[in-house]
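Sorry to interrupt, but I need a hand with the structure work. Can you supply me with one protein entry, sequence and fold together? No commentary is needed, just the two lines. Leave the record below and I will have a look.
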Amino acid sequence: MAFKYIERVPAGAAYLLSPITVDSAGNVAGIIVDSDDDNLKFYDRTAGLVRVVSTGVLDSITPTAAFALTALQSGIDVFLNAAAGFAITLPLPAAGLRYRFTTAAAFATTNFTVVTNGGANLFQGGADVNSTEVLAAAQDSINFVATAETIGDYIELWSDGTSWFITGRGAQAGSITFTVT
């Protein structure tokens, strides 16, 4: 893996950074950095827009339907803000990948779930749920439970390349659970 760093990109300028290689399913060969409107935009040279980073703000998304995260979205905050929950699938574990999931609104009809790729039992760690440590030991589903959620409940995940490690907080009893599907 090789990386280059740009300290400052003037507004309206575009730079091709080479060599930047990632692969092993990350598939980035070279990245074009473009800035306009005070945003840095990172483009995979072959696959279009990868992600946009606004100055001083972490990347975030508020999904509206089930989807799969990619390794290129590592570091992203996922805000759970829909009337009905759905499944969000993690990429395969890779050292250094990180994600944060936060309840941003009540979702009274269906749980939000965060699941491992392929159903592998890779979750380790736990969360403080209503002042009780709820452990995840070799499980594959994190459940943000409908009707027990509180805005601000969260889970953070990071990987060592083999497992997904968990920490988090749920305000009400039963608001976050871990299961094997």
